[in-house]
Write a structure and sequence with these properties.
Blueprint lengths: L3 H12 L13 H8 L5 H11 L3 H24 L10 E2 L3 E8 L1 E13 L3 E6 L8 E6 L2 E13 L2 E13 L6 E11 L2 E10 L3 E6 L8 E6 L2 E13 L2 E13 L1
Antiparallel strand pairs: 1-3, 2-3, 2-5, 3-4, 4-7, 5-6, 6-7, 8-9, 8-11, 9-10, 10-13, 11-12, 12-13
Length: 252
């Protein structure tokens, strides 16, 4: 029985238009990408190959895409680009949704996160992503913006390395902008800080020194001790903006 996915791809090919002799009159980049990834049915592939025999533009696009994939793989292999992160990596198998925001597109991809570190991610995608494009990823309660540093074809898709440019937690409760002096630190390593906004479940705190993601911290402010966990820590000029999830609040 023909799969729904195959029927969908066939419909996409049919929508592109055919001449009386059965050859395609137009092929979208999405169809070419599916052909490049081996995602078309035998019939669709045969039809598209016939189109490629007559269309210089599509042949050029396909050749450039193949060269880019090969070049990306050679760079990763020769320079160890996919192993340049020195921070500890945490293996994971989380699912996430990504969108290319530069250059802007409306397409969302479902991906698998393979590992995470303080400054980067490794993900598996169903299609090739060009080096240098900017992605926005929705992962758990986080929005992550990252740049594609490499993209290597594998047996089950493409392995993509992302350099994290920004990371913001998605708190659903209303946030109140504030400017409250405080201290934040791990155990006895307190440092001066300021609370920039707060909600029922989290805070955004500015401090001079980095606090590791995932670290338990205590925040002392206005007669309270707040025990929390660091969700993200991003540089902001000469300081760091630290997002925390509140675990417990005690009155002094």
């Amino acid at each position: 029985m023909e799969s729904v996915e195959s029927k969908s791809r066939m419909s996409a090919v049919n929508r592109s238009g055919t001449r009386p002799d059965g050859l395609l009159t137009h092929v979208s980049k999405e169809q070419l990408q599916s052909y490049l990834n081996g995602g078309l049915s035998d019939e669709d592939s045969k039809q598209l190959k016939s189109h490629l025999d007559e269309c210089d533009g599509c042949r050029t696009w396909l050749a450039n895409s193949r060269n880019q994939i090969q070049h990306s793989g050679e760079i990763a292999s020769q320079t160890g680009l996919d192993e340049r992160r020195r921070e500890t990596r945490i293996p994971t198998s989380d699912s996430a949704s990504v969108q290319v925001i530069s250059p802007p597109t409306l397409e969302y991809l479902e991906v698998q996160v393979l590992d995470v570190s303080r400054n980067g991610l490794k993900i598996r995608t169903p299609k090739f992503l060009s080096l240098g494009v900017i992605l926005r990823m929705q992962l758990r309660s986080m929005w992550i913006v990252g740049e594609v540093r490499y993209c290597v074809q594998t047996d089950d898709g493409f392995c993509v390395g992302l350099y994290i440019q920004d990371c913001v937690e998605r708190r659903h409760e209303e946030r109140l902008d504030v400017d409250i002096p405080a201290t934040i630190g791990e155990l006895l390593a307190d440092q001066p800080a300021r609370i920039l906004d707060q909600s029922a479940e989290g805070m955004l705190v500015a401090a001079r020194h980095r606090v590791p993601e995932g670290a338990p911290v205590r925040i002392i402010t206005e007669g309270k001790v707040i025990f929390a966990k660091v969700v993200h820590c991003n540089p902001d000029g000469e300081r760091f903006k630290i997002g925390v999830k509140i675990d417990q609040v005690l009155n002094l």
